[in-house]
Amino acid sequence: MGVEERRQQLIGVALELFSRRSPDEVSIDEIAAAAGISRPLVYHYFPGKLSLYEAALKRASEDLASRFVEPQEGPLGSRLLRVMRRFFDFVDDHGPGFSALMRGGPAVGSSTTNALVDAVRQAAYDQILSHLRVTNPPARLELVVRSWISLAESTALIWLDGRRIPRGELEVQLVHDFAALAAVSATYDEEMAAVMRDIVKDEPGDGPFSDLVVRLVALAS
Amino acid sequence: MGVEERRQQLIGVALELFSRRSPDEVSIDEIAAAAGISRPLVYHYFPGKLSLYEAALKRASEDLASRFVEPQEGPLGSRLLRVMRRFFDFVDDHGPGFSALMRGGPAVGSSTTNALVDAVRQAAYDQILSHLRVTNPPARLELVVRSWISLAESTALIWLDGRRIPRGELEVQLVHDFAALAAVSATYDEEMAAVMRDIVKDEPGDGPFSDLVVRLVALAS
Q1: Do A186 and B219 touch (CB under 8 A)?
Q2: A85-122: buried (b, 16+ CB within 10 Å) or exposed (e) per residue?
Q3: pLDDT one-digit tens code per residue, B53-74
Q4: For chain A, which terminus, N or C, has the lower number of CB atoms within 10 Å?
């Protein structure tokens, strides 16, 4: 194998191990064994576990960011629901590693890992604004979108801790949460109310946003 | 000054400095100067900057947790609003330090600081359950409460970044967000619907929860 090919193979092996167990618990020896090479050879490609972890995290974060990309067609609620399904697929595949990273253990916190996590959040934010066709977001819209992204992260983390709620339900719930947070904000601000009207105007009667309204009306009565 | 008194004074001086600027930028020399003692004497009481930072963070986190305590009387929405006011007072007083900590910079991340942050989150969670008079929370209630706590954190962080929305509005909005997220969850689950009915049954017509319903109805029409 060439140098770059070997590096890529090692990253893949490491990502697999870092995803399945907390990265704290994965040793270079294990990574070497899983890749079928010697421990010194691993160090030949990566100076230490942190640099291999960062390379694996970079691949995972690019993978996750790519799942946010969705054709800008059809009702917004259904687009967001498809992204939520792919987000939970990712979380499901990388559970222990995702938890360890997002809970900020000392072994995984570095300025590089923080920058990678921030880049994924920014990718999510940019995608949502682009679907809303907003280029200069008012402060309240930025707040709703960014704080909802943190809500999605914490919902995924809580789900991983015991998986006591079916993930399919949480995927829909996060779409509804987005609509609910945007609606709350729209009650304060005309600019947000205009964004909200834009969100709902193309929603079909059987889309996730309409479904929420029907459910809320049923709950209130 | 006695040893413990001097330690407490140093913690107070350090907390003040760590709150006003990112802890990364605060030097032991500055802390010594602000306390009116020599640099070696600081090291006599604290082995290094991290241990002084952790002691300051411990005091700040106990301060914050104490602000969550609210008499269990009167409408729930108004109780939560008073807590939100005290939460934003705290965030306002400790802005740069709060941001640096919650954004997880490498200089402030340690297992001790993570444990202190988690303890504050747990204190918030325990207070909310106790006001809801729930001792064995169903999984969906735990999810709503814990994910709303992370929403409150991210709302405060986004507010600190430019303060483009009046904090008084965000304090009310977070109370409304809680009701909205609980309502969404209640549309899926009978247990959550029962909790929701309990929340709203003692709400007066001019409380924050009723206010939200009035606003949402106005928005929808």
Answers
A1: yes
A2: ebbbebbeebbbbbbbbbebbeebbbebbbebbeebbe
A3: 999 999 999 999 999 999 999 9
A4: C
